[in-house]
Specification:
The complex is a heterodimer. Chain A is mainly alpha-helical. Chain A has one domain. Chain A is built from three helices and no strands. Chain A is rod-shaped, with a radius of gyration of 70 Å. The termini of chain A are far apart. Chain B is mainly alpha-helical. Chain B has one domain. Helix content of chain B is about 75%, strand content about 5%. Chain B contains nine helices and four strands, in the order ααββββααααααα. Classes of the chains: A mainly alpha, B mainly alpha. Chains A and B meet through helix 1 and helix 2 of A and helix 1, helix 2, strand 4, helix 3 and helix 4 of B.
Chain lengths: ~180, ~280
């Protein structure tokens, strides 16, 4: 009786027809295999291959772009450095040129100054000589003229002297003047 | 020893089991597989009975929900693939899918398998998205969790087992693979024990995978149903807010669990594949 009941109990809990959560259904297993394999194959075709390819493509694209940007940056930096160097060089050259021209201008200035000084000195000297010469000439001319005038005056005086009346008159007029004074 | 009391006890137990089995029906009905899809109050869809070679291959509720998951996945990925054909910049739903794909690739497959992970990526991605979708289908109204069926999880774990073993055998050769199972430098007299332990270990891994997924996906639903059942057991309206808020909390937890279990299954499969492929570690 007990054994019978125990067997019944075991049979009952084991063969529960309404189903427990641990029941295994071969139909479901079969369908799961079929469904999963189908999903795997179809997704491999329509999804994983194109999507993973796209992802890789995009990753490579980004990597390439970054690399390109990096090289471009480096080039730009190099160019800037080169530019700086050339600007420095040009500035230096400009300074040099300015310095040279200043030096040259100074030289030229002093040269011109010297030249003009000597020239003016010479001109002054020439002029002095000329003046002296002219002076001497004029003096000699004046001397001649004075001598002529003196001779003429002497001649006139001599001629006047021959007239007595006139002489007396002259003397009188002189005397008059003297007395007036 | 065998007094009438014992007899009485056995009879009572049997009685309790008989009546008790029917009492749990209202909970288990929502968790167990069924031959019809219950859409109360809109009616019940009876699934057609199919028998093939003496096996009952009737598509059950869980099978139908697996198919729904498959259809959803195919539609989503067709949309995603189309969007990638248009431009490399993802948009809308493609963004979400891409995050998950990149997650599986970079956080699961790459670190656990390492070199040669690309070969297993389709399998891992499929298993991840399939489990994830099935888990989430159980959280919508009228939905059923196919992954809370031990037959489904055991089958998925068996497929994982096959992928792990075949991956290892293709990489290391049949003899090399089984030789690599046994660690180097152990005394020869330990070999028989180690062989048994290691071969047992091969089977415990997928067994754990199957039980973990099944238990996690079943437990949440049963806890929610028990909390709701509390209202009817205690027969008072005062317990309603408590039951509802706790059930809501468990539901939110289930969303988390749905994600985590999909991740765990994929992650552990990937880890075991990595161990089988690169045995030196």
């Amino acid at each position: 009786m007990i054994l019978n009941n125990l067997l019944l109990l075991a049979f009952y809990s084991g063969g529960e027809s309404s189903g427990g959560p641990l029941d295994v259904n071969p139909g479901v297993i079969l369908w799961t295999v079929v469904t999963f394999i189908f999903l795997l194959l179809i997704l491999k075709r329509i999804a994983w291959k194109p999507i993973l390819n796209s992802l890789n493509e995009r990753e490579n694209f980004i990597k390439d772009s970054l690399d390109k940007a990096e090289t471009a940056k480096k080039e730009a930096e190099k160019l800037i450095a080169d530019n700086k160097v050339s600007i420095l060089k040009a500035e230096e050259e400009a300074h040099k040129i300015i310095e040279q021209s200043r030096e040259y201008a100074g030289k030229l200035k002093s040269q011109i100054l010297d030249e003009s000084k000597t020239q003016s000195k010479k001109m002054i000297e020439d002029a002095t000589h000329e003046i002296e010469r002219k002076n001497a000439e004029a003096f000699s001319k004046l001397k001649d003229q004075v001598a002529d005038i003196a001779v003429q005056a002497a001649e006139k005086i001599l001629r006047e002297n021959l007239d007595k009346d006139k002489q007396i008159k002259l003397v009188n007029s002189y005397l008059k003047d003297l007395s007036k004074n | 020893m065998w007094n009438p009391d014992t007899l009485k006890t056995v009879a009572d137990t049997l009685q309790t089991v008989k009546s008790g089995a029917q009492d749990t029906g209202w909970i288990m009905h929502h968790v167990l597989d069924a031959r019809e899809i219950d859409l109360t109050p809109f009616g019940v869809i009876h699934l057609p009975q199919i028998h093939l070679f003496g096996i009952d291959v009737t598509p059950t509720k869980h099978v139908v929900f697996m198919w729904i998951a498959v259809i959803l996945l195919i539609l989503a990925f067709i949309a995603a693939t189309r969007s990638y054909k248009k431009s490399l910049v993802p948009k809308g739903v493609t963004n979400l899918l891409e995050v998950l794909i990149v997650f599986v690739r970079d956080e699961i497959a790459k670190p656990t398998i390492g070199h040669g992970y690309e070969r297993f990526l389709p399998y891992l991605l499929t298993v991840f998205f399939f489990i994830l979708t099935c888990n989430f289908l159980g959280l919508i109204p009228y939905g059923a969790t196919a992954t809370s069926n031990i037959s489904v999880t055991a089958t998925l774990a068996t497929i994982s087992f096959a992928v792990i073993q075949l991956g290892g055998i293709f990489k290391n050769g049949l003899f090399g693979y089984f030789k690599g199972l046994i660690p180097h430098g152990i005394p020869f007299w330990l070999l028989p024990i180690m062989l048994v332990v290691e071969i047992l270990g091969l089977f415990t891994k997928p067994f754990a995978l199957a039980i973990r997924l099944f238990a996690n996906m079943t437990a949440g639903h049963i806890v929610i149903l028990a909390l709701i059942g509390l209202i009817f057991i205690l027969r008072t309206y005062f317990v309603v807010p408590v039951s509802i808020s706790f059930a809501l909390f468990i539901f939110l937890l289930e969303i988390l669990v749905a994600l985590i279990q999909a991740y765990i299954f994929t992650m552990l499969s990937s880890l075991f594949i990595g161990m089988a492929v690169h045995q030196e570690h």
